[in-house]
Amino acid sequence: MPRLAVDVSSLRESRDLRRLVAGNLVTGLGTQAALVALPFQLYTQTGSAFLTGLLGAVELVPLIVLALVGGAIADRFDRRRLLLLDQIALVVCAGALAGAAFALDEVPLWFMYLAGGLLAGFGAVQNVTRSAIVPNLVRPAKLRSAIALNFGLYQLTLVIGPGLGGLLIAAAGVEWAYLADAVSCLAMVVALIGMAPQPPQDAGPLVSIRRSIGDGLRFVRGNQALMGSFAIDLLAMTFGMPRALFAVLAVDVYGAGAADTAA
Questions:
Q1: Domains observed in the chain
Q2: Strand locations in 127-260, DSSP E?
Q3: Is the pTM of this model over 0.90?
C-alpha cells in the first residue's frame, strides 16, 4: 500500500516560502481570534441579534470589492510591498479595536462596523496577494505541493484560531484578542521584511485597474463552470456560514460564553 505523506520539499528549497508560510500561520491564528471577538463584543454590548448579524453584511461588501481591486493591483506592483502595506493596515485596525476596548465601556457601533469592514477588506487583499506570491517562490515542479501546503496550513488556522480566540476572550476579554491579532500581524511584517522583492511576472501591456477587473468578470461570466463555482461559494459564505451569529447561539441558545462562541 502506498503511504500518504505531506510533501514539504518546497519548504526545504525556498527560504522565502518558509517565511511566507510561517508568517501566514501566525497571522491567521490572530485574525481568527479577532473575528470571534468582534461579533461577541457587539452582541454582549447591544443584546441585538439583528445588529450582530448586520456585521456580516457590512463585511461582505469590502471583502468582495477589495478582493477584486487587490488582485488587479497585485498584477501591477511588487507583491511583497503590497502585502507589507496591507499587513500594516491590519495592525492599525486591530490596534484601534484593542485601544477602543481598553479605553471605553461601550464602543460605538459605527466604529465596530467600520473596523469590521476594514478588517474584512484588508484581509481579502492579503489572501489574493499572498496566493499570487507563491508561484514566484518555487520552481514549477514544486508549485502544486507549495500551493497545497500553503492552503492546508491556512485552513488549519480557520479551525484552531477561533477556538484559541474564544478561550482568550473568556480568560482576559475581547481587548486582548484584538491585541493578539495586531501582534500576530506583525509576524507577517517581520517575515516580509526578510523576503526578496516579488514583482509581478510580465503578462504583456497593462490596462487600467477598472478594465482589468471588468475583463476578469466578463471571463468568469462566459465560463459556466467558473460562474457556478463562484456563485456557490458566494452563497455559501453569505448564507451557509453565519459566523457573526455564533455569539448569539453561544450566549442565548446554549447559555455559554466566549469559550464556546467559536465551537
A1: 15-203+243-260 (1.20.1250.20)
A2: none
A3: no
